[in-house]
């Protein structure tokens, strides 16, 4: 087993690190305070290829592998998890789902724009009564002639207001249960499509998270992805890959907090010497680094399995479960190492701790990951 990154992967890592440190770091605290992401930065992310990394060059993407994607996700997440969740949704959920299951016409019309960052995508699965229980969709799509009439509400939608294109999961045949669910490509601006309130979140505050509402929205039949009843399978398959992206985000948050803590521990002095020379701090740093390295190996394994075309469902769930727990633990320890300074915004670690929590919740809670792992074990 080769643990060394290739020259191509190292180049991706360097490019992502350069963007994170030179473009994202300045203003990251202000963006968090103001709960706004700079559209100029979003445009740069598109121009640099971060929003369509795994999309085929045929459709304007980078044609990179999943490992390249998670490497870039880690570097951006070290600095700004709000930026990386925008990147994750666009890459893992919207672009991947559309390229894997969409028609040529859908790819030509939408994927080319999404891969270039000219469009931003949103993935609309969660509802007020349908989070972990994704089969309980109350949003409906009634077939009428050459179109569907879409009605319902989606919440917790990342890129909810900034998106141009949404993938919306809805029931078309409720009597068929999960086999009566479909997924539709819906454009922002269509009549009956409205954006609701913006959520005032604990973390990833610069990314816009909104409720989206659909009232008799006419969706052309050609905007349905896959065969009739394919929507639930589409959602689950897409989320399996999405978990790798969120695991990489959690890994990056933990790595960023660790790097800040290591630097601070070597600079901060107590009792006449750097706190890094105190065994209590050394033990914290040692365990932080060990857990991060273990999480990285799980994330890389899931990415490699996906790239090799092998079953990665259990590996992705394990990576997300463990990496998100590591992110929460490491960031809490980072605040402790920083002491009083860790509790103020200037030193970044309090923001990283707030950002870490969501990785245990979205793209399937930690409890759902355990169910997925157990199901795969017991097959």
Automatic annotation (TrEMBL):
Its cofactor is FAD. InterPro entries: Acyl-CoA_DH_CS, Acyl-CoA_Oxase/DH_mid-dom, Acyl-CoA_Oxase/DH_mid-dom_sf, AcylCo_DH-like_C, AcylCo_DH/oxidase_C, AcylCoA_DH/ox_N, AcylCoA_DH/ox_N_sf, AcylCoA_DH/oxidase_NM_dom_sf. Belongs to the acyl-CoA dehydrogenase family. This is Cyclohex-1-ene-1-carbonyl-CoA dehydrogenase. Residues 6-118 form the Acyl-CoA dehydrogenase/oxidase N-terminal domain. GO terms for molecular function: acyl-CoA dehydrogenase activity; flavin adenine dinucleotide binding. CDD domains: SCAD_SBCAD. Pfam families: Acyl-CoA_dh_1, Acyl-CoA_dh_M, Acyl-CoA_dh_N. SUPFAM superfamilies: Acyl-CoA dehydrogenase C-terminal domain-like, Acyl-CoA dehydrogenase NM domain-like. It comes from Dyadobacter luteus.
């Amino acid at each position: 087993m080769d643990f060394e990154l290739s020259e191509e992967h190292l180049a991706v890592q360097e490019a992502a690190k350069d963007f994170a440190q030179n473009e994202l770091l300045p203003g990251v605290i202000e963006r968090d305070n103001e709960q706004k992401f700079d559209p100029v930065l979003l445009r740069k992310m598109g121009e640099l290829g971060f929003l369509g990394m795994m999309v085929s060059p045929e459709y304007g993407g980078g044609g990179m592998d999943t490992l390249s994607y998670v490497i870039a996700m880690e570097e951006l997440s070290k600095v700004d998890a709000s930026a990386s969740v925008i990147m994750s949704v666009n890459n893992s959920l919207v672009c991947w789902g559309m390229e894997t299951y969409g028609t040529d016409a859908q790819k030509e019309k939408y994927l080319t724009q999404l891969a270039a960052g000219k469009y931003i995508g949103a993935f609309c699965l969660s509802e007020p009564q349908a989070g972990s229980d994704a089969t309980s969709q109350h949003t409906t799509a009634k077939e009428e002639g050459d179109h569907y009439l879409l009605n319902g509400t989606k919440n917790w939608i990342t890129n909810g207001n900034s998106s141009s294109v949404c993938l919306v999961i809805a029931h078309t045949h409720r009597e068929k249960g999960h086999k009566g669910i479909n997924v539709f490509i819906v454009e922002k601006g269509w009549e009956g499509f409205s954006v609701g309130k913006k959520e005032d979140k604990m973390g990833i505050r610069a990314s816009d998270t909104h409720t989206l509402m659909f009232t008799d929205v006419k969706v052309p039949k050609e905007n349905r992805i896959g065969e009739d009843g394919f929507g639930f399978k589409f959602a689950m398959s897409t989320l399996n890959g999405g978990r790798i992206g969120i695991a990489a985000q959690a890994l990056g948050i933990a790595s960023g907090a660790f790097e800040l803590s290591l630097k601070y521990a070597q600079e901060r002095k107590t009792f006449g010497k750097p706190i890094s020379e105190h065994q209590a701090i050394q033990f914290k740093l040692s365990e932080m680094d060990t857990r991060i390295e273990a999480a990285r190996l799980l994330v890389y394994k899931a990415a490699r399995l996906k790239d090799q075309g092998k079953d990665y469902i259990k590996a992705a769930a394990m990576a997300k479960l463990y990496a998100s727990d590591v992110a929460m633990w490491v960031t809490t320890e980072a605040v402790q190492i920083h002491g009083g300074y860790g509790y103020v915004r200037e030193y970044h670690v309090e923001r990283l701790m707030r950002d870490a929590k969501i990785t245990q919740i979205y793209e399937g809670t930690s409890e759902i990951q355990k169910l997925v792992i157990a199901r795969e074990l017991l097959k």
